[in-house]
Design brief:
Radius of gyration: 17 Å
Strand order of the largest sheet: 4-5-3-6-7
Largest sheet: 5 strands, mixed
Helix content: 25-40%
Number of helices: 5
Order of helices and strands: EHEHEHEEEEHEH
Shape: globular
């Protein structure tokens, strides 16, 4: 493990189970760790703004749409989950994920957030958040032109973490987003 040699750790992956997350937290007691589902500056700004909008747009329905290449294993993406977690926190933790929609349903519950995943071609990563109110819609979207953006964010995190002693470091601190 990296904590044996006191090596800071930048984790740029998703799909961790509870045991993995427990091990990451335990390791952070000895070394600094940055763990996020996405190292893109644009995505992290979008997540930050979506949290603000979810708070401001009470009563608006929210849907999340994500698209990735046809080789991607997880669905929904870690980024879609990051977006959901941010808006759920802003809405007091009362939201429920609904994966895709099909068939007939009663009226949509105001606490439902639809998460829709597309897998096609060589799409690097597209994410859209729709806030739909009475007679108005706000959309936030991010398109990853290449995977270079993720590498740049990871390198920025690696440079940042060198000066840290231990603990879980928030990606927003690294990217200088927020308060």
């Amino acid at each position: 493990m990296p904590q044996k040699n006191k090596i800071p750790l930048v984790l740029a992956s998703t799909g961790y189970d509870e045991k993995d997350l427990e091990n990451i937290k335990k390791a952070s007691e000895e070394i600094p760790i940055i763990q996020t589902g996405n190292y893109s500056l644009g995505v992290n700004v979008m997540v930050y703004v979506s949290k603000i909008l979810a708070n401001l747009l009470e009563g608006f329905d929210i849907e999340i749409i994500e698209a990735h290449h046809n080789k991607k294993k997880d669905s929904p993406s870690g980024t879609a989950n990051m977006i959901f977690d941010a808006i759920n926190q802003a809405r007091g933790g009362n939201l429920e994920k609904i994966y895709g929609r099909s068939g007939f349903t009663e009226n949509k519950d105001s606490n439902e957030v639809g998460i829709h995943a597309l897998r096609a071609g060589t799409i690097n990563g597209d994410h859209e958040i729709i806030f739909a109110g009475q007679d108005e819609v706000i959309k936030l979207s991010h398109h990853a032109q290449s995977k270079k953006i993720f590498a740049l964010g990871s390198l920025k995190a690696a440079k940042y973490i060198i000066k840290e002693k231990k603990g879980i470091i928030d990606i927003n601190d690294v990217l200088n987003i927020g308060e």
